């Protein structure tokens, strides 16, 4: 095994996803320590960043703002400490759902029709434009925090008010109802697709982290040729944003079988409910092997 030196596992932080990050980071820490890596937990909400100067590389298990949006990546670049996952630009873009969609649209990747909302929006007109249902979400949050599903006319404005408490920029997205899927990316390879079947109306925070009745299908049930095509498109979506190392690309499928890409995750969860470890396992990669491979991809620039 490579000598990684002294490794900091960044976990916790101060985003709305702190609790999930603590779970992810703790599992990563345990897996690395069991394999002899000199790994240590480091919570930037409780310690000064300059203390990272004592480490040789960093495994980023932070989720959400201040951990997945390019800010911590920029600090590590300045300090010259290699870190896991995407760089500053790609992390910032990946956190911004609106700008991600604009880039994907520019190269012809399919995305759901969407609109930006603010307090002056004509909510009724947007409901008519997008049709129902509509998903409303803060532009720069993860883990489905602040997301609502609008099913009836007149509900868009209240849904906007919920999302706006989390971020000033709010996205309304035409509801694509037919299937939720995700593609894990590891070292420039798209892993087997997972189909997500929540018992709730959609894959919300509760379905992701708290419930045990969400079903995950891997193999996903798509014909082999179609899965291969979508894995290639997901890898293209990942590369277009400048992402590197590892991550996850999510897409929805309508009832006619058309796929629409919705977002990228540049610091995916590593909890016992998380999707990248599931896909890795199907690809023959254990959790222990996964964390070592991610750590080995740590870089600068």
Number of domains: 3
Topology order in helix (H) and strand (E) letters: EHEEHHHEHEEHEEEEHEHEEHH
From the N-terminal CA to the C-terminal CA, the straight-line distance is 25 Å
| Poorly predicted sequence stretches spanning 5 or more consecutive residues | none
| Shape estimate | globular
CATH topology of the largest domain: D-amino Acid Aminotransferase, Chain A, domain 1
How many helices? The count is 10
Strand content: 15-25%
Beta strand count? 13
Q: Could you estimate the helical fraction of the residues in percent? A: 25-40%
CATH class of the largest domain: Alpha Beta
Structural class: alpha+beta
CATH superfamily of the largest domain: ATP-grasp fold, B domain
- Report the CATH architecture of the largest domain: 2-Layer Sandwich
The average pLDDT value, as a whole number, equals 94
Rg (C-alpha, Å)? 19 Å
Biggest beta sheet summary: 6 strands, antiparallel
What does this structure look like?
Helices cover 34% and strands 21% of the residues. The chain has 301 residues and is α+β, with helices and mostly antiparallel strands. The protein folds into three domains: 6-85, Rossmann fold (3-Layer(aba) Sandwich), CATH 3.40.50.20; 94-110 and 178-296, 2-Layer Sandwich (D-amino Acid Aminotransferase, Chain A, domain 1), CATH 3.30.470.20; 114-174, Dna Ligase, domain 1 (2-Layer Sandwich). Strands 8, 9, 10, 11, 12 and 13 form a six-stranded antiparallel beta sheet that branches. A four-stranded antiparallel beta sheet has the order 4-7-5-6, covered by helices on one side. The chain has a three-stranded parallel beta sheet with strand order 2-1-3, covered by helices on one side. Helix 1 links the parallel strand 1 and strand 2. The longest helix has 17 residues, at 18-34. The two termini are 25 Å apart.
